[in-house]
Amino acid sequence: MTTSTQKAMSRLYKFAYGLVLTSICFTIESPAKTLELDPKLFPTPPIVEQQIQFWGKVFYHYPTHATVIHDTNRPDHIIDIIDFKVWAEQNNRKTLPGKKLRDRITRSYLKRYRQAIKRFRRLGKSALKFGAIERRVFSVYKRTKSGLYLLYRGKVDIRSQGGLADEFIAAANRAQQYLPYMEATFKKEGVPPIITRLAFVESMFNLKARSRVGASGVWQFMPQTAKKYMRINRLVDERNSPFKATRGAARLLARNYHVLDSWPLAITAYNHGQGGMKRAIKQVGSKDLGKIIDRYSSSSFRYASQNFYAEFRAAVNIYKRLLDEKKVDIDQESLSITSLSLKKPLSIAQILKKTPLKKSILSEFNRCLRASSFTRYRHHKLPKFFEIFIPKNLANKFQIHLATISERRYAKNK
User: Fold this and answer.
1) What value does the CA radius of gyration of the chain take, rounded to a whole number of Å?
2) Which of 167, 151, 120, 144 shows the shortest CA–CA distance to 50?
3) What DSSP line would sit under 10-74, residue for residue?
4) Axis crossing angle, helix 274-284 with helix 242-260, rounded to the nearest 10
């Protein structure tokens, strides 16, 4: 290589690294390690311990083809388990019933059990004469005087919960590619890395998770909350990036803790809202989550919010158990990626035209990019400092090729 050529290449590298992209900021190279939970930071009042035990069964013992009918406020009171695999066999079906049919069957079970509960309120123990359903309910609540007291006074509420054991194992395997990054990000933001297990509760590490009320991504951010921590516009929705949403989740949790000074409350606020938890503390006069669950009265603080922290604690326990039992493939190929930030506005059209990245790779590693950013808005520029994730082995080529992009071509103003 001649001296003049070397000087030219040197100028090109300086341009590529100094004006277009920042340096590499993170690479995932190893599977997640087992983390221990500090009981001082994450206490478990008795009412929460009951919830943890229940959710541990949901995450570990009850598969997705089973539905549990249980007491809403005393989850250790399990009344029945509907096994739809058995139901299919009994009804000469080769496949499991679909969701609509399962829901209809579950509703019929709940209706019959609620009828039995009403009979105990009217008739007391005499309700046993009505049949097997009443006897089953009685067998659950007769264990304690308080249980019978509540049953006879009609203060029993029941609900159904689908099992998640097989899904949790699948989620634990999916998590291996993302937990190292998540743990490092949480630590950087001052949040205990163990709280990354909350993603099991939110989405089971399903990158395509969407809720009926509009929450999206691994961390299930609602649009209004997400806009405080990430970018959402016609080109991108960063809720759908497991990396960018993780940073947002860590910052939201850190903010919750700064205001509430309690990790159980900060985690519950992720579901119920920081303002909601402040109102709960004021009404109950305590920051003890157990007391809040037992005493706080609010139309919005219902089952999901009351159980959110317990679900997190159960997820911590079951994930560790699966690792200990070697039910998770921790030797799967690592996700080796690099994060780079644009130093000038660029469009998707420019990036695809002038770099070795193909659409499939760009979209796979940058799930925050909307489909329209590759079609209708492909010539619209991504902003300066926009963070792009790419395979580590393409980083150098990506930087060098970007340096050749002319600012006059391909991109249109918004």
Assistant:
1) 26
2) 144
3) HHHHHHIIIIIB--------SPPPP----TTTS---HHHHHHHHHHHHHHHTS-TTEEEEEESS-
4) 20
Nearest to 164 by CA among 59, 274, 18: 59
In which region does residue 205 sit, left (phi positive, over 0), alpha (psi from -120 to 50) or beta (all else)? left
Backbone conformation region of residue 347, classed left if phi is above 0, alpha if psi is from -120 to 50, else beta: beta
List all residues 6 or more positions away from 369 whose beta carbon is below 8 Å from its beta carbon: 235, 236, 348, 362, 363
Domain ranges of the chain: 3-27+336-402, 73-159, 166-324
pLDDT tens digit string along 135-150? Answer: 999 999 999 999 999 9
CB atoms within 10 A of CB 20: 21
End-to-end CA, the chain: 43
DSSP-based helix, strand, coil % in the chain, nearest 5 = 55, 10, 35
pLDDT at 114: 98
Structure token pair of residue 217? 């991504």
Q: What is the pLDDT of residues 153-179, one digit of tens each?
A: 999 999 999 999 999 999 999 999 999
Domain 166-324 has CATH 1.10.530.10: yes
**What is the Cα 55 distance to its own chain's centre?**
15
Question: What single-letter amino acid sits at 284?
Answer: V
Distance, CA of 283 to CA of 382 (rounded, Å): 46
